[in-house]
Amino acid sequence: MAGFRGVDYMMIDSLFSEEELMVRQTARAFVEDNVVPVIRGCYRDGVFPSHLIRQMGELGFFGANLEGYGCAGMSNVEYGLIMQELERGDSGVRSFVSVQGALVMYPILTYGSEEQKQRWLPKLASGEAIGCFGLTEPGFGSNPGGMLTTARSDGGDWVLNGEKTWITNGSAADLAVVFARGDGRVRGFLVEKGTKGYSSSDIHGKLSMRASVTSSLSFQDCRVPAENALPGAVGLKTALSCLTQARYGIGWGAIGAAMDCYETARQYALVRKQFNDRPIASHQLVQEKLAWMITEITKAQLLAVQVGRIKDGQRAEAAHISMLKRNNVAIALECARLSRDLLGANGIMDEYPVMRHLANLETVKTYEGTDHIHALIIGERVTGIPAYC
User: Fold this and answer.
1) Which one is catalytic: 58, 137, 368, 380?
2) Is the separation of the CB atoms in 231 and 113 below 8 Å?
3) Is the pTM of this model over 0.90?
4) pLDDT of residue 1
């Protein structure tokens, strides 16, 4: 297959500035040169390409849309284009960057003390330090308000007890942003690797997101100094605001996976011959599938650009981002399924990226808010009536 040249049916590139296109090209070249050559082996072996972390830090990918403390200070559209290109490489790579920036750096920048910002953000931005985000628990995913992890104030410290699971970067992290119930309120804490009573273990046997570290975190009388509490992270809404940042990146990232599946299927259909030695791209049913994919990808691109623009204008609501995440992941998953179908038996081979994207997107559809949860968020936005119970 030829190298990736982009997917732009509706001249969407005309909506981007020269700077935005330059950022995208930088991310695209990084993926072509560094992710594509290794990701098949990483996925097969179930390992994250950790040798890329510092290089991504040097390129400003971590917390790219945050200001100060070593962050690149890019626009939200530029950040989205980075996420798009990274997920074209693999959802696991985009997920690493999303967690680092949206779920670790963002809460420190937004809710942390000046000392916490000065200490951690430059290290996280450069990739010198790795972070993870602890909210989901074994019994509480879609309902984080039911969390059982507790934080008890004791002699100026906080003592954490509980368990978190499905934590991206968990065992690799130098720092965990953890939410727990303390003094009747949900609170955020910074828990450093090596803290007594804090341990992590990797989740094995995954058939999706294999090029990503996924862990469980355990807190057993884990004593956290008072200065490690995030002073502004009080209330469940602060944790949910972090998820909103991550969901935004996912909405862009899914486009990249869809693009890769579509372009792989398009190129394959032009060279694969069946029936009278004609390329299968000449058949009506094949063209119908390609037409559906490019139409939905184009609509997803337009949705992402608009959400990015209103986010840059500080007018984006959580419900806007829910529509972005829900729609774009759904169409990306269907693009992967249609592409697998067009490749026939070759579609299940790791010589092609389609089955890897398909398996990954099944997870992306679930995490950071399931399809159903986002439907309810949108439903509440248009009716004014919450229907979560």
Assistant:
1) 368
2) yes
3) yes
4) 58
Catalytic residue list contains 288: no
In angstroms and rounded to an integer, the radius of gyration of the C-alpha atoms of the chain is: 21
In the block, which residue shows the tokens 């530029």? 78
**C-alpha–C-alpha distance, residues 170 and 217, integer Å:** 7
Ramachandran assignment for 346, one of left (phi > 0), alpha (psi -120 to 50 degrees), beta (any other):
alpha
Tokens representing 111 are 């809710």
Distances from the Cα of 123 to the Cα of 119, 162, 319, angstroms: 8, 28, 32
Q: Which residues face 154 on adjacent strands?
A: 157
Mean pLDDT of successive 10-residue segments in the chain (389 residues)?
85 98 97 98 98 98 98 98 98 98 98 98 98 96 92 95 97 98 95 98 97 98 97 97 97 98 97 94 98 98 98 98 98 98 97 98 96 96 94
pLDDT of residue 91: 98
Residue partners of 54: CB distance under 8 A and separation at least 6: 126, 127, 128
What domains are defined for the chain? 12-126 (1.10.540.10), 131-234 (2.40.110.10), 238-383 (1.20.140.10)
**CB 90 within 8 Å of CB 253:** no
Per-residue model confidence (pLDDT) at position 42? 98
The one-letter code for the residue type at 283 is H
User: What is the Cβ-side half-sphere exposure of residue 88, based on CA atoms within 13 angstroms?
Assistant: 30
Is-contact 268 279, C-beta < 8 A? no
- Determine contact, residues 54/127, Cβ cutoff 8 Å: yes
Find tokens 């060279």 and name the residue.
271
Q: Do β-strands 273-274 and 278-279 pair in parallel, antiparallel, or remain unpaired? A: antiparallel
C-alpha 243/C-alpha 325 separation (Å) is 11
- Whether 286 and 342 have beta carbons less than 8 Å apart is answered as yes
Both tokens of residue 257?
Answer: 């996976």
100 neighbors 130 (Cβ within 8 angstroms):
yes
Nearest to 74 by CA among 86, 82, 84, 64: 64
Name the DSSP letter for residue 48: -
Distances from the Cα of 112 to the Cαs of 169, 189, 218, 275, in angstroms?
Answer: 21, 9, 23, 64
Structure tokens at 221: 């009388």
Record the tokens describing residue 108, joined without a space: 């420190």
Secondary structure (3-state) at 41: helix
